[in-house]
Design a protein that fits this description.
Elements (H helix, E strand, L loop, with lengths): L1 E5 L4 H12 L3 E5 L17 E3 L6 H4 L8 E4 L6 H6 L1 H21 L4 E7 L21 H20 L2 E7 L2 E2 L12 H10 L4 E4 L5 E3 L1 E2 H13 L9 E5 L4 E3 H8 L3 E4 L14 H7 L7 H14 L2
Parallel strand pairs: 1-2, 1-4, 2-3, 4-5, 5-6, 6-11, 7-10, 8-13
Antiparallel strand pairs: 9-12
Helix pairs in contact: 1-7, 4-5, 6-8, 6-10
Length: about 300
């Protein structure tokens, strides 16, 4: 299988690239190293790389020819930077996705796997299932959900097979650690390593469903390789464990030292995935338990290993 991964040097994308290479697939990556949240970008010597902006149709369209499956992970993936610069979020997440889809359509790509976000659920009651209405609280979720609508439209109107994943708070190996807007588990582990207090936003009682990156990778591989009915495409699927934790509970797993900082606008109070649909359609199920992974990560920080 010949694959194209957008954002393939980043956290989730590089893990997808490695899994594809390990399975014997050919991989091309489009990634302009936009994100400033990473300590480093990740390169697999067996993949091909193009340092281009996904929203630039003229400079990227040729990379899609001969590709079987596109994994679209490139994004402005953080809420607060999107609030500060909505135009940039829309350019990358909405125009960028439209460009990926149009290039895929013209090149006759078989499938496009789109990485979206549980932020689409906003203040919907938990557990969150795919039939709930969108409740976008910030430019990030608006721009990502617009990308979802484009995927569904390209399936319905142009017969391009798309799969839309809503990820619930992905964590794990290669997670971003830099800056105040990195994912919370990465921030806490960085602060533990530096001997600092953990900074808890608001009252710390916000609850999140956390999903290990290896389980996200497995969802992508299944979506690309499984024989699916036509009705399965253009659909949204939750990728989440189906269990949530408060930020205070996460902090307690990592360090007793914490301090509270001001709450942030535009963020949901509770997320919790109903993952019935992806289990039934793709046969996917989560395999990594948060408590086990965090315990090992904390031990690694403390021992310096």
């Amino acid at each position: 299988m010949k694959c194209l991964v957008t954002g393939g040097k980043g956290f989730i994308g590089s893990n997808v690239v490695d899994a594809l290479i390990d399975a014997g697939h050919e991989v091309t990556v489009i990634d302009n190293e936009y994100s400033d949240a990473h300590d480093q970008f990740y390169i697999n010597d067996k993949a091909k790389y193009a340092n281009q902006d996904i929203s630039n149709y003229e400079l990227t369209k040729t990379f899609y020819y001969g590709i079987d499956v596109v994994f679209h992970l490139a994004a402005e993936a953080r809420i607060q930077p999107a609030i500060k610069n909505p135009l940039n979020a829309v350019r990358i997440n909405t125009l960028g996705t439209a460009t990926v889809l149009q290039c895929s359509r013209e090149a006759k790509v078989d499938r496009v796997i789109y990485s979206s976000t549980s932020s689409a659920y906003g203040f919907n009651s938990a557990p969150n299932d795919e039939t709930q209405p969108d409740d976008c609280l910030n430019p990030y979720s608006v721009s990502k959900v617009a990308g979802e609508k484009l995927c569904t439209m390209y399936t319905d109107l142009f017969d391009l097979k798309t799969i839309i994943f809503r990820y619930f708070n992905v964590y794990g190996e290669r997670q971003p650690l830099k800056g105040q807007y990195a994912p919370v588990i990465g921030i806490f582990l960085r602060q533990l390593a530096n001997g600092e207090e953990l900074t808890v936003v608001g009252d710390g009682e916000e609850r999140r469903d956390f999903t290990h990156v290896s389980d996200v990778v497995q969802a992508n591989i299944l979506a690309a390789t499984k024989d699916l009915s036509e009705e399965s495409f253009g659909e949204v699927y939750n990728v989440g464990n189906g269990k949530n934790y408060s930020v205070n509970e996460i902090a307690a797993m990592i360090s007793p030292r914490k301090r509270f900082i001001d709450a942030r606008p535009g963020e949901a109070r509770i997320t919790l995935a109903d993952n019935t649909k992806i289990r039934d359609t793709l046969g996917w199920q989560p395999t990594v338990q948060l408590e086990d992974w965090v315990s090992k990560a904390v031990d690694s920080v403390k021992t310096g290993s």
